Queue: 2 jobs
Job 1
Amino acid sequence: MLLHAQNVTKTFGGLVAVNDVSLTVEPGSIVSVIGPNGAGKTTFFNVLTGIYKPTSGRIVFDGEDITGLRPDQITQRGIARTFQNIRLFNNMTVLENVLVGMHGRLHAGLWGSIFLTPAVRSEEQQARRRAFELLAFVGLERKPGELAKNLPYGDQRRLEIARAMATQPKLILLDEPTAGMNPQETSEAIHLIRRLRDELGITVILIEHDMRVVMTISERVTVLDYGAKIAEGKPEEIRSNPQVIEAYLGRGAVVA
Amino acid sequence: MRALSASPSPLSALNRGPLAYVLLTAYLLLATVLLLTNTRTSLSTDILFILFLLGFLLIYRARVAGLYKLVLGAVMLLVVVPYFGAQNAYYIELAIQAGIFVALALGLNVVVGFAGLLDLGYVAFFAVGAYLWGIFSTDQAGQFLSGFTALPADSFYLFLALGLFVGAFFGALLGLPVLRLRGDYLAIVTLGLGEVIRVLAVNLDRPVNITNGSQGIKSIARPPLPEVMRTLLPGLSDPQLYQLLIYLMGLLVVGLSIFIVYRLKNSRIGRAWEAIREDETAAIAMGVPLVRMKLLAFAVGASFAGAMGVLFAAKQQFINPPTFDLLRSIGILSMVILGGMGSIPGAILGGMLVTLLDLQILPRIATELGALKRQGIVIPDWFDPVQYQRALFGLLLIIMMIFRPEGIMPDQRRSEEMHSGEPAKPSQ
């Protein structure tokens, strides 16, 4: 398995945001984490990527214990992410956003950058070439010079994915990648997520509210409610799971 | 709004093809000739001097070959200014001061403009550089290192380089406690740390006398005059030669600073700084090590101040703590903001402009008003022009911030830098 979260708990004072959640992700799969608002999905992502340290529990990625590492160290080891409320570098260009994503994969240091050594020069050229490839992959190759904040919404989501891809991840965490999209944009996003896995072999975990998206692309679904895992399984199993329906629609919905 | 930019305007027709060369050269020649024929300190010379300096802006903006710009700039900086300075010491002193503050503005611009870390104690690193040379070029060091006597004056060059590293070291050192702070909190703590350095300079005369306290350090050594200068310029007196030497050293540090910040800005490191400024959380999630990159910004920014401090001590030959007070830090910050945060040409312009305002334009206005008053023109008694200099400066800043909050020359490399098939979208 690629990722193994064991009994992860995160509390903020008295609030248990994530309660003893375990999750196993096989390489090359697409997994969804769903749950009502405030179920702790994003907090769980933040724990996986090192933005929060888990109160207890362990996270093993690619055979290595990454619990308590800093976010940049975790990114370096191959977990990339996007954010629920898009967090691009607004006043940087599309190309620069992707180049920042490559930071951990480049080696130019202070002196190399000042003296612009041949090694640094060629590294920069390669980085730009690769950035253009990534932009082409998500369909933004015609807008490299545009400031990120001037992109339309759907393009911003795509740029976030390209930027995350620039870190050369093995696993990518997408936090509500289709939020706020119309049906047309949503189906394009689904297509893009599939291609991440099929063409680049990247494992995907996504948080998603749109059940059509979840049911269409995920191979496994994990359901959180009040910070705890209440169900896990194939999409069709989850669809008919009474506990899940109750969590979403309230008690009595199953009977009715 | 964008009067200075190269956007289409009636003026842009003049800035094209051979005409650009002719006009630029003609302007510079005229400004130079007028300046060199009016060397007495006066209102008209002040105006001519400013028109002459405006020439640098024109060189920067003109659409002429880069090499031609370089030659023009070099001639102006290395021939015209020193020659004019030899006629009138006041103006070369002005040029030296401007150079010092340009380097400081460039350094602070790395911290505030590039990395977005609001630093209100920046002058501390300038002080560190100044005291470094002050202490070791005089017998002051003997006060706490037994048997130590003043270093020979020619170790100045070593200390100029050392100033870079000592500045960088202190930059990182004072950066350490504030790594976790953002925005206003960061500003307050850096303000405090800056004051700590100044207060240390005041109080470190007991129990061991390191800084000589509030009396400051006297008779700091100047760099020795190279024999070449004496033989090349036999007409100049020693004080003039010293001034020229300091001017050239200042130019060297400024040039070096400009080179370094340009290279860093367009590198992996510059991008990481910018990412931190835009969104720390996203930056670290993309693999940018926050701690290392922030410390690097503090260190690089402080290094220029350290080197300039060494030069400043050698120029003044006397330093004392009040020179390095909070107001000075704020002054440097106003240069960066006035020029346009994150913009290298902006920092240069801001540094020159504020220095000129401070030392030349505002005092000149005060003098002229005073002269008018003596001639019997009614200026109310409560309005003492000399007293209102600072108020005028503040007023200018406020007007600037209302009408051009992004600064005079904001960073606009983005549109120019990208040459990627599609023509760049007009940015504003």
Note: The interface with chain A takes residues 259-260, 263-264, 267-272, 274-275, 278-279, 281-290, 296, 300, 414-415, 417-418, 420-422, 424-425, 427 of chain B (CB under 8 Å).
Job 2
Amino acid sequence: MELFTQLLITGITVGSIYSLVALGWTLIYKCSGVLNLAMGELTLIGAYVCLMFYQWGLPFPLAVFGTLLVGLALGLLTERLFLRPLIGEPVLTVIMVTVGLSFFFRGLVELVWGTDTMVFAPPIFPPEPIKLGTIVIGQAYVWSFVAALALLVIFVAFFRYTRWGLSMQATADDEMASLSLGVSADFVYALAWAIAFMSAGVGGTLLGNINGVNISVGYLGLLVLPAVVLGGLNSVPGAIAGGLIIGVLQNLAGGYLDGLTIAGLKIIPGGVKDIFPFAIMTVFLLFKPYGLFGWIRIERV
Amino acid sequence: MHLPCGTYHDRYGQDHAWWQTRFVWVRMIALFLLLYVGLPATGNFYLISVANIIGYTILSAMGVQLLIGFAGQVTLGHAAFVAVGAYASAIAMLQFHLPYLVSIALAALVAGLWSVLFGLPSARVKGFYLIMTTMAAQFITVDFIITQYVSQIGGRGHYFSLPPGTIALGPWVIDNDIEVYYLMVTLVILCLIFMANLMRTRVGRAWIAIRDNDIAAEVMGVNVFRYKLLAFLVAGVLGGIAGAFWISTLAFVSPEHFQWGWSLWLVGVILIGGVGSNYGTVFGSMFMVLVLEALKFALIPLTPVFPHLLEKFLYVKEAAFGLAIVLFLIYEPNGLAYRWWQIKNYIHLWPFSY
């Protein structure tokens, strides 16, 4: 039971980071219909940019703020250079452009920062764990959870109450109607990419604080794809729920299934944690092809 | 495709022929001579090894072309089936001491069936959701099943290396680049003939109907599910052949050769070459390999300025490849095959090209 609670809490904290990145993904999809496969690389860029600022001697909150600014700039730039010319092209073309972008970004990151694991030094969060009864949680996890939650609240409030957020909701709902009411679709697309870059950047920073920064942060960022599929592509609450579910299930699987031995025979030697989200997603899709909260698409010939 | 000026057909057989004019005959024979005699005669091992990489890329990308370009089932996990082929072939040779040719056939079969297993979700889901299940196929197959289970067979660790002399077709031992090259050319030509002919049959037409509009195809009486599975089967078979060929080039195999990046790379190859055309597979592979090799030479003069550039060439390559895909999709969405088609038509219609 203790192990279970421990894994559950770790899962929820990691899951909250996935939720944050998944939110960015869903936003792009809702507003502009782009299925973005470069999300892992956006996470990667964020982690490295924040690390760079931190190594320059900036205090951590300022470094995160700097990451947000760089994310904003990169998001606007990416949308303008690579996605704007493709408005109205087939879905596959746009997906493949994001695949191209993911290669491009990963190559650039490796070129600039190399592939060795780097850590935030000196550590940002004190290494002493917090003890709740018998359960031990690293402070990095606690603060990541708090930060992810805070950003989620900020983003949701942004959609609810600001003019820009409302125009994004309008575009997602009906592009033609919002265009005729004076919402600039170009601006909304750019904003969606900027927010995706920012949320992925902060998500990457938080993940990097937990595990150290290297290329595998990009792989963790990729796990948002099962999360959004589970939540049903076009739903913001779905993305948040999906992120949490994936985080929890992944940690439970890692804790219980890795090295599973039945009757002296090693049934599972290891490595379940990395692939479990994808396995869950495949099985889930067979039973509920549109996710938890997704819209069922009705097709016509 | 326009016929050259002054060529008229008066029998259906002429219309169906592969090589319709004397010029094409001469051209194709010259191509065969170049491939089988000319290139090996140069004795340039660098050239031959580059050709082998191109051949491997063509063989691997052919299955992707079939799934994406002909049957419309987007896959981002094809490296998994290449991996299954490579491991099936390696295990057949190492554990069961089967001859290489038998192991190729076995690899094709196993990879095809494995591919059908992961094609099953295509009955329920399509579009982006199908992309996700093929991605899952990649991670489950390569990062879990092969790394954790298959690699343990025989206690060799992660690398299966094949002792010299194992890879042989009867008395013909394949142990240097030139011999690998002959094997590669033969396999590529056979697979291309197979694919090109398949697309002229009922099966190929059914795939194209599904690609263009699956609901309409179903209404027309195409059994969509069966043909989708058939597409996955054939793509897996081609992937298996590519995998079995791969072990002949390096004589060892490791899960690291078949990472997700290679799946994406293959998709990029057909996008640059042209989706929905066998020329596209060939041109895309040639473009990717040759341009990136040329890039390497272009970077050598820059080394005094950036001393670590060549060590980091892998990353430059990745970034350049990504940029190439993006630029091609934006500025030349039909790929190189379309450009080739335009050039051919221009020549055929010359001097009356209006």
Note: The beta strands of chain B are 160-161, 168-169, 172-173, 252-253.
